[in-house]
Amino acid sequence: MTTFVALLRGVNVAGHKKIGMPELCRTCEALGFTEVRSYLQSGNLVFSAVDGNPTDIAATLKARIARDFGHEVEVLVMPGEELEHIVSTNPLRPQSGGEEKLFHATILFRHVSETRFAELALPAQEGEKAALVGRVVLLYCPHGYGKTKLSTRYFEKALGIPATTRNWRTVLKLRDLSAGK
């Protein structure tokens, strides 16, 4: 069995694409996933499954969500250890307690080359930082994520790749859940 993390894009935001997390967990269990847990109401799941391809699992989950809930939702699935790698290699890592709220991770649905990322003319404000690690854009937003132009929408448009963003506390919690902590 492998532990996976699934991130659903755009559910339960401003009353749109409502999906109850208990119901979503039951949907996952109906697909044969075990140890299914959700975190918050924004479509974060951790579950175990027989070793499989994350892309295939995402497609299966996406189709089942459309069937069970009537919503077309982008689903990204990654092995739990990928989150550990993201956390351990974050070059923008929070240095002091409480600073985590200034950090975010925009996870791209496909990898992008470092060269392509470096070519972007990032609309960063003073003090903001962005770094690409694998398929994740790590962000430091000292003015708050709500005020940055380094948003999910920006990266999707600039790179032509769907993405979803989580705050650093959520990334850490999902990493812990996937590691059995």
Per CATH, the class of the largest domain reads Alpha Beta
- Return the structural class: alpha+beta
Number of individual domains: 2
Overall geometric form = globular
**Which architecture of the largest domain per CATH?**
2-Layer Sandwich
Uncertain regions spanning at least 5 consecutive residues: none
Widest sheet: strand order? 2-3-1-4
| CATH fold naming of the largest domain | Alpha-Beta Plaits
Amount of helix: 25-40%
Q: Overall pLDDT, averaged?
A: 91
Hey, roughly how much beta strand do the residues contain?
A: 25-35%
Q: Span between N and C termini? A: 17 Å
Whole-angstrom Rg: 16 Å
- In total, the number of strands is 8
Task: Give your account of this protein's structure.
By secondary structure, the protein is an alpha+beta fold. It folds into two domains: about 1-80, SP0830-like domains (Alpha-Beta Plaits, 2-Layer Sandwich), CATH 3.30.70; about 85-180, Alpha-Beta Plaits (2-Layer Sandwich), CATH 3.30.70. Helices cover about 35% and strands about 25% of the residues. The strands form two sheets. Strands 2-3-1-4 form a four-stranded antiparallel β-sheet, with helices on both faces. A four-stranded antiparallel β-sheet has the order 6-7-5-8. α3 crosses α6 (about 170-180). The chain is globular and about 50 Å long. The two termini are about 15 Å apart.
